[in-house]
Batch of 2 targets.
Target 1
Amino acid sequence: MRSIAVLLALIQTLVNASCNPKGSCLSCVSAGCRWCVNTNRCVTKFAAPFKCFGEERADEWLKCPISMKQGYRYSDEFARTKMHPLSVAAYSDNPQSCLNNILKGAEVKFKITGQCHGRKPENCSGFAAISNTEKAIILSFRGSKGISQLTSQAIETAFGKSFVDLDGAGRVNSYFYRTFIYIWNAGMKESLRSMLQEHPDYEIWVTGHSLGGAMASIASTVIIRDRMHTTDKLKLVTFGQPRTGDRNYAVAHNSMVCA
């Protein structure tokens, strides 16, 4: 019995030796260890439940915290006072009236509401606007509207296994992609190009709620993938966004939009 205890202690010592507590999250998980996100410590797989008690743990590099550049961290004030109202405006038949209260002088340049899946009464909607005061171009996507659309979305995303390749950026759920591409190709893409030609130094703000959040996520990835703008000039904030794509999409999105 004593020999077993000694053997276990020896194994634990050897495992601990490869888990450098002063290393990075990437080197930690690459060594088969666990990273305590809140306290920035590298511990063994067996010790993680005790040493990382009550905090998030990373067991693969995709779960490692992203080191954001100065000035690019999440801003609660920006999300609450700008992006949340802009995402709500997408639900309005007249988003301009909402913009008048959110961003003085902002102007809607493009708006569409249509049957993106060819099924009545389901439709999708989004708008593009510009704010010279904020020096920003705004893309806002509306979420699901009505029981019929919500039900279709739930069925296709929860049980459907249909995905679309995003040309080097992983795969996204086909329901979200069809909805996005309808709005994108119906005029939003060209409206964005036109505004960028006039104001190449402006930021692009992309937002949406629920289904709109998934579309906003895809839009931000496509914008960077197609080199329409640069990462440092793009801001994405979504609300209640459902899981949009596969693992490769998550990796591509993080490397493009959060770089």
Note: Residues 11 and 17 are 10 Å apart (CA to CA).
Target 2
Amino acid sequence: MSAFHAGKIAITEAVQLLSEEPEKQHGIYPQKGLLQPGTDADLTFIDPDKKEVFPRESLQNKSKVTAKTDFRMASLCGRWSGGRL
């Protein structure tokens, strides 16, 4: 998102890089990472104007591995997952 905020890429490219590309790398695209009828729709809503610090302990993945630690990013406003908000 920093590239988008810096005007280096369009919002559509940012969305593709953050949703489609990781799923393609994990071999689960297009069932995940694509918003269309028949696919799994997990959505994350953010407020790009509100920033929060996300410590490593807050990561919700199995590996707990990230290139960044304690970094500032857009604030999470909500999540739609498994048909629930």
Note: The first helix runs from residue 2 to 5.
